[in-house]
From TrEMBL:
InterPro entries found in the cross-reference section: Bac_surfAg_D15, BamA/TamA_POTRA, D15-like, POTRA
GO cellular component, one term: outer membrane
Keyword Transmembrane in annotation: yes
UniProt-recorded name of the protein: Surface antigen (D15)
Annotated compartments: Membrane
Residues in POTRA domain copies: 30-101, 123-195, 196-270
Organism: Sebaldella termitidis (strain ATCC 33386 / NCTC 11300)
Coiled-coil segments: none
Primary location: membrane
Presence of keyword Transmembrane: yes
Signal peptide (UniProt feature, chain positions): none
Amino acid sequence: MKGKLSSIIIVMVILILATFNIQAAENNELRVRNILISNLRELPRELVMSKLKIREGETYSTKKISDTYLALRELPYINDANFYTQVEGDNIDIRIEVDEMPNALEIAKREESREELSKKTEFIISNVSITGLQSLKEADFIKDIPLKTGEFFVPQDAIDGASKLFNSGYFSSVEPKVVRGADNTISIEYVVEENPRVNNITIEGNTIFTEAELLSALEVKKGDILNIEKMDPSKNGVIKKYQDSGYTLARIDDMKLDDSGNVRIILSEGTIEAIEYRKIGKKREGERRTPKSTDLRTQDYILERETRMKVGEIFQRDKMEQTIRNIYRTGLFTSIQPNFKPSATDPNGRIIEMEAEERPAASINGNISYGTSVGFLGGINYTDSNFLGRAQEFKAAIEISDEGDQTYEISIFDPWIRGTERLQAGASIYYRQTEDDDANGTDLYKVKRYGTRWTLGQGLNDDIYVRGAIRYEDVKEYYRSGAKRDDYDLVAFTPTITYDTRNNRFSPQKGLYLSLSDEIGKIVSDHRSYNQFEIDLRAYHRTFFKDKNTMAYRAVWGTTGSETPEALRFKMGGADSIRGYDYGDFEGYNEFYFNVENRTQVTNSIQVVAFFDIGNAWQTNDKKPDRDGADKFKDLKSGAGIGVRILTPVGPLKFDYAWPLDIAPGDSKKDNGKFYFNFGPSW
């Protein structure tokens, strides 16, 4: 299709140029004075001239030019042709610049010979026969020969007939004999030699399938006339059986036939000799490649535990695809490209080279930014989702905002401890201070929290994890006047079960994520205790734009006990829940919110999103749980907007602008749109 389109475009250009160069043709008749063929290297001028649809001395027309161009392009020994015209009075000179194919003269001679042989002769075919047959029937083959009794003899048809007989696979030799009769007739006899009958077939090198299984897949059977075409390694059923079962590196290394009809097939199933991981090479001109330049930051054991292929096993496509999926799911890589190399020592061995491109994982930055929930924020952050190349998540942060919020935190989490069966562990130490500028004299104004959290988990398989976390906090609550509102120590235990089939932790395009957690908390100094249960469900799928566009959905529902301290109740609104509102606009003992995002990948580092959020949190004016409102999902508030995600060397940046579609609690009218800026990947 591309070739036809190119030809049409070039013809149109020729016609347009011709129109500009020979305006006199509109009113006067031009005659072709000279035709010059240029740029010839091997082809004789006379040969090219004989293929033209326009001649010297003829009347010029654009149709003849276009017909000539197409005629030249159809020749197997000419790659392209360009036409140039020069008008002088009533005459026009044409120069044709020819681009020859490599070995153009040899191709032209073969083509000329074929054209000559394809001409009808004056002889009539009187008989067509096949001799030398021992077991095969003439009728099964004579029908495929293009020569027919009573027709004019064409030499090329006789040659094509011999080719058809030989390509049937049943004959070791085919010799056409042409006998001329006295009455201007010709008879054609094809003298053939049949292949021997198959006496026995043995297969060597097979371990996946038994010889009986492979013989049943082979179309050639014992006792049959050997068909070489059916024994072709690229066509026979043996390799197809391997391919259909995912053993795509299997091949036939050798096939031997003796005079007694014994067939010996030697297989190479494709044993994995080595699996190597290396960085995708991006060599600059003049740069020397060194072994160090291909080393990945990610340590070998991280990749090895995600690899389903094993050295010494027969390569199987399904295990390769599962390996690639597992590596993508770590979220550490943006590209995985498998390459296959033959072994230098074992003809059956294959080396699998996995070229990988790592996602930027570590960043250290000082920043001054603006977040709608915290105001102007200044801080120093070091984050790394592949700490020391071990796939561990490490964070050290100091952040202070002009609205009184402060965070000091250091944390580490290992999702799979080396040398264990999916054991995971993490720890964090933190100090957090939050202030609510909208609080009045009796409301909670400031909360100071000193705490530590320790997590231990176990993966049950690739998709399911169970975790338990113990948290200790010293919490101090204050009024706006500075008077202490509450002071308590909190101990909480949180069991969590997670189901995760996302194809990538940091940039999912398909899969599900479900987390169920129940925090069981106790205030050390008094009788208060609580349970805080939360469900987080997410789903992702590609749209008709495939990898460039993803739909993402998230639903969160939670409930907590009536004795839960105010500082620990649900707070919503802002960049991470219901956009279009401020953080804390919705708070209570129950929460629900639902997010929908359409994510379009513009480039490898830029993503555009459109989103819709809806939800609320519920409690009564006397600070008691409003279970009825929560159960009926009363008074849901919504927002919608657009955003941009930018992947930078210092980590992902998120910019969102959202419009509230409802009036926020405590307000008399709908607010204007709000801008959100945050660091970190999307949910």
